[in-house]
Amino acid sequence: MDLPRPVAEVCARFLELAPPGLVTGLYLRGGIGFGEWVRGQSDVDFVATLDRRPGDADVDALKEAHERLASYSSVPFDGLHVLASDLAADPRECPDVPTVLHGYFAEGTLDAMVAWHELALNGVTVSGPPLSEVGVWTSADALRQFTLDNLDTYWRSNAEALAKMPSEGEREEACCWCVLGVARLHHLLVTGEMTTKSGAGRWGLAHYDERWHRVLREALRIREGGESEYDDTSARGHDTAEFLASVVAEEPALRG
After folding, report:
1. Which residues pair with 127 in a beta bridge?
2. Rounded average pLDDT over 239-250
3. 3-state secondary structure string, the chain?
4. Once rounded to an integer, what is the mean pLDDT over residues 148-162?
5. What does the pLDDT look like over 87-141, one tens digit per residue?
């Protein structure tokens, strides 16, 4: 597929900056794999395969490459550096690996369960063997369980926090993140299919009660542009908090 120019440029620059011979493949996941790229909103989510499990010198070189990349491009470039054999195995067994998230370089696995499935279903090969040859591990049951647990932990804690302080949901960034983020998880649990943030918002307009349509349109508007329907930001905060709570409340029933 033809990548948006900023995406193609940041990928090419990373491959130039990476330690020679270390990176054997570069693959993209997330919205790009679904054909969704919103300039100024979308991250470039990647998984890079390496020739070997990186030692200290390799890790330092990768960190320097990402620091130089950040000074070259403002496009967020977040992801994991793994072995191809990691992708062929259960992501819950993946050891901590060099990881970049929001510009921070550390050791971890980010959301490896989601990453593996996005790569297998909609991944984009930038360099290296095609993903079909890599043989990425998948399990619909494991992905569903991971999603339910995420809803019951991360999103439940956010719902409880917003219930106490709905003013936090007034911010555009918080509204967009919470509404589309939790709708994306709910979409997978209801339909069995993965989608993008915007895709989840549009699905939500057909799935959820009309009570939630204004805040769904607002989240989409924040992500994609347009005029707000909210004259009062406090109303947006309350709607964000209440929508999040309503979706989280469905978690026990979704477990079946």
Report:
1. 26
2. 97
3. CCCCHHHHHHHHHHHHHCCCCCEEEEEEEHHHHHCCCCCCCCCEEEEEEECCCCCHHHHHHHHHHHHHHHHHCCCCEEEEEECHHHHCCCHHHCCCEEEEECCEEEEECCCHHHHHHHHHHHCEEEECCCHHHHCCCCCHHHHHHHHHHHHHHHHHHHHHHHHHCHHHHHCHHHHHHHHHHHHHHHHHHHHCCCCCHHHHHHHHHHHCCHHHHHHHHHHHHHHHCCCCCCCCHHHHHHHHHHHHHHHHCCHHHHHC
4. 96
5. 999 999 999 999 999 889 999 887 899 999 999 999 999 999 999 999 999 999 9
Say which residues have a Cβ less than 8 Å from residue 54's Cβ, sequence separation at least 6.
22, 62, 81, 97, 98
Number of residues that this document lists for the chain: 256
pTM of the model: 0.93
Lowest mean pLDDT among 28-32, 72-76, 181-185, 202-206: 72-76
